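[recover] target loaded
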């Protein structure tokens, strides 16, 4: 009887904890709404960032640096040996390795399940519960940490953490946790929100890259 009581206690506690988190934290929503509204008001954004992936099981990790330009739903991502262009309708993934050059072309709508530099600002609005975990001070900057958990088990990203500069309402980094116990981390090193980039910057121009093999998947 004693063991049964203990089991019921723990099950009840787990159910209460789960139901509490299932609610959308109004404090977190206020923060996320502020970040999203500020992002939508910008003419454009350019940033350098550090990207890393760590396997939680064996502790292995790898990292690289990149650059990103964003304008609404459009973005231009630069990584070592790779560039991705998205003009809102078409996505070009350009890869260069030695003398080999290749670009894969997709419809932007076919990649809706992927987390993009644009959608990270609004992903909380559909399909996620969220809560404010807390605040921490990093080099004099107050960072607010918000956790998102997917409402559906088949969601492509089940757990995401967003890090927000409390005073500037800027997203400064995020983490994505996969099913294998690994975590993808993105952290902005520098951000310029005073840019007004032309639409052509988000469209792949083959004339600038010479002879390129084109793989059109549209």
């Amino acid at each position: 009887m004693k063991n049964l009581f203990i089991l019921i206690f723990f099950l009840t506690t787990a159910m209460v904890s789960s139901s509490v988190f299932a609610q959308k934290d109004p404090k977190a929503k206020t923060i996320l709404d502020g970040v999203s509204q500020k992002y939508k008001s910008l003419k454009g954004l350019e940033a350098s960032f550090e990207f890393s992936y760590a396997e939680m099981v064996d502790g292995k990790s790898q990292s690289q640096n990149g650059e990103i330009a964003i304008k609404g739903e459009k973005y231009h991502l630069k990584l070592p040996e790779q560039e991705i262009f998205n003009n809102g309708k078409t996505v070009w993934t350009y890869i260069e390795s030695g003398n080999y050059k290749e670009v894969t072309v997709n419809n932007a709508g076919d990649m809706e399940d992927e987390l993009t530099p644009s959608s990270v600002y609004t992903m909380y609005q559909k399909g996620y519960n969220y809560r404010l975990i807390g605040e921490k001070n990093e080099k004099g900057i107050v960072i607010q940490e918000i956790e998102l958990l997917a409402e559906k088990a088949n969601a492509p990203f089940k757990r995401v953490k967003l890090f927000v500069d409390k005073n500037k309402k800027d997203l400064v980094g995020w983490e994505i946790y996969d099913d294998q116990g690994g975590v993808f981390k993105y952290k902005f090193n520098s951000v310029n929100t005073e840019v007004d980039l032309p639409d052509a910057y988000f469209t792949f121009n083959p004339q600038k890259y010479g002879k390129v093999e084109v793989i059109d998947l549209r």
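[recover] notes: The longest helix spans residues 2-22.
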